[in-house]
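Lab manual, section 2.4: Encoding a predicted structure.

Procedure: take the sequence of the chain (307 residues), apply the prediction step described in section 2.3, and record the output as structure tokens. A sample record is shown.
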Amino acid sequence: MAVDRNMQEEAIDWSVRTSDPAFADWDAFTQWLEASPDHAEAYDAVMAAVADAAEGLRAVPEAVNDGAQERATAAARRRWFAPAIAACLVGFLALGVWQFQTPGGTYRTAPGEMRTIRLDDGSQVALAGDSRIEIVGERSARLEAGRALFTVVHDSDNPFVVEVADRTLLDAGTIFDVNLSLASVDVAVSEGLVIYDPAEQRVRVEPGEALRFSKSSDDYVMSQVPVEQVGEWTSGRLTFRGAPLEKVAVDLRRASGIDYVVARNSASHQVSGSIMVPALRESPAELGPLLGVRVSREGGSWVLTAP
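Recorded output:
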């Protein structure tokens, strides 16, 4: 199931309302659930994301004696839990962090959103913003757009396979990052081993190594990367090392949801630096001094210009 943001918001709304002890509109809730099979899964995912808060609501004790003060206190505590759950749910939506367990299907994220997909074998895929992936059974995936961090459970008899840009990555119990851009694909490994193009070139990518291959030819290049930087975007940080400004803008849009674009004749300008994405949501122009570029606002976009 590919849960879109509107469906998430609807699921959040119903989760908050049905968590209120005074809720009575069960007919309308049932109609919403029956309108699409995806609604129930979205609702369940939201409730799972705030399981602790929901458990707290269920655990509020009934008033056990006849004292008016005790009954009033219990009722007040119940009324408090519904908005508390609402705040928790809204926080999850703002962070864009959602977790689903699935045997297959296509998953999409909006810019600035991140989703974790848990597979039946214990492997998991963290999907960056503005990305799309198809899970093809338990041990195979196809990254169609964007970026994903794979944490794969080792199975020597059944290695995990990732298809990306008409190429194959064969995994042997690994944590690795795959970043798909317009002209190339970057693969970086922090644990284990990935084999690029196992049928022909059979290139080994080991921990601390990164491979970039062209989408239009058989060319590839190898480089070194600190293992702690592999997948760091899942914790809100992006590090660039001599990266073209055009690629920087794409990665920033994906991670933050902010519409960064590159000025004409600045696309190939290379920059280096480390960025905490949550800070940019408060002040997009703060990117300028961090990367040594000019940042200006034009309409709803933030334009990056080489100095």
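Check your result against the sample. The CA atoms of residues 259 and 301 lie 5 Å apart.
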